[in-house]
Amino acid sequence: MIHGTSEIDLPLWRRIWLHIVAWVVLAFLIAPILIVIPMSFSASEYLDFPPRQLSLRWYLNFFQSVEWMDAAWVSLRVGLATVLLATPIGMAAAYGLASLKGFAVQIVRALLIVPMVIPVIIIAIGVFYLYAAIGLINTLTGLILAHTVLAIPFVVIIVTAGLSTCDMTLEKAAISLGANRFVAFMTVTLPLISRSVLAAALVAFITSLDEIVVALFVSSGEKSTLSRRMFSFLRDQIDPTIAAISTLLVAVSVLVVVVLARQSRATAR
Amino acid sequence: MTAAPNSGLLASSSRREQRQLLGLSMPALILIGIICAIPVLCLFWLSFVGPEGFTLRNYARIIENPSYLAIFKNTFLASSVITLLAIVLGYPLAYYIASLPDRTATLCLALVLVPFWTSLLVRTYAWLVILQRQGLINQALIELGIIDRPIQLVYNWTGTVVGMIHIMLPFFVLPMYAAIRSVDRDLLRAAASLGASPPKAFWTVFLPLTMPGLLAGAMLVFVYCLGFYVTPAILGGGRVTMVAMKVEQNATIYSDWGAASSLGLVLLVLTLTIFFAIAGLLKRQAGTLP
Fold first, then answer.
1. In chain B, helix, strand, coil percent, each to 5?
2. Does the distance separating the beta carbons of B106 and A122 come in below 8 Å?
3. Is the interface score ipTM higher than 0.95?
4. Would the pTM of this model clear 0.90, i.e. be above it?
5. Class of domain B65-288
């Protein structure tokens, strides 16, 4: 891959402003996240930075609170269920459309990404109204179904990208040797796209974990997700417990970036 | 000739197979229908039904009521400012990362991706901590002697816009970076060899070539901003109202489903119009390029 166009005949002094702007913007992006981490280890009730005394009291506050643990447990269950639903459903759609062409296929592709385009507040109040009518308010089932729909577009896009780099003639070879299509997919194609599927599952989990607006409407009390509880907390007060939870969530996002980077490097190969 | 009947058999089985393959999308489509289409249709119906049957009152109120107009104006203004800032800050960054050697580029991309994958709430909370009265910025400004009492940086539009730019920037930088990477570098060399100065080559060759990526990223940011709820709700501290927040208030605080649904549908139509207008523009542009 050839890099380095921008330096075409450009003397260094003309590029200095570019260095400065770029690193200022990068600092703007990363600094707020880095600031939260030391704050979570502060012993003080007030958010002083840098912390004068270190302690784990806010982590203890989180892990010893029944409400926070309940919320984390709800988020974990809803997130895993969303992964288990959205991944196969989205993967099936992506696989089916991968080898097809035509107008109908384009329409189906467009419909599959609709949940990504509609402002989430509209899905939230619409789902709230529908769930109130059919008794799904404040149930994990309702939350899981909504999160699955929000995650499907991401799964479809990621698995489609994975399939586009995968050699489909291998599956045809397996079929011609007598395997039925399902067996051929499971034993030949799925291992080939496994990293994309893993990435899709991860993104589905994050979609559910970070989702707030739908959860705000259809879950409350002991059915609150972690994000929903954090949101109502932040509206009222700035509690350092949130810094501890935030640090844990940043660790999750760093993990996601590492896993996805490995996945995309494998696809590029 | 044994090939002819054989190929006929293949064609018919392949048509059945095509239907089966299309059928694999059915579970996804059914779920999307139940969770997206039915609720939106419910909202559509609710927005036209009053106590005495069919009514246009809900939509008339949006046009006539100055407070609703002000909310739309503020939402559009804030979204435009954030989109412009995302372009001004994001384009140089994407350009810079694309010009780096692989290893450094990966590091810089990670600095964009970690915030991208970090929970919205975490980032909103971080800005609350930084911008509040005893926050880092106020502390630093007081210690430097620039101000002598804390200034109000959050729970207003300033804080809201700063937090939203932070959340939106990766949405612009990532597609922009992909678009810049895909530009054919030889075209720039050609421009240079024909006598264009570097700035001229940039403005007349490079920028137009990356325009589709710029438009796509800007559209993404603008459309997300229009429907944004969480960050303005927290960083606005009740002094900022965007359309999505008014929708939420109408539904939960006032239980006024006519007002909530009509406002939500206007937001939806605006969002989809902008989305398809720019997507169509990009498609037409892509069609004219070789």
1. 80, 0, 20
2. no
3. no
4. no
5. mainly alpha
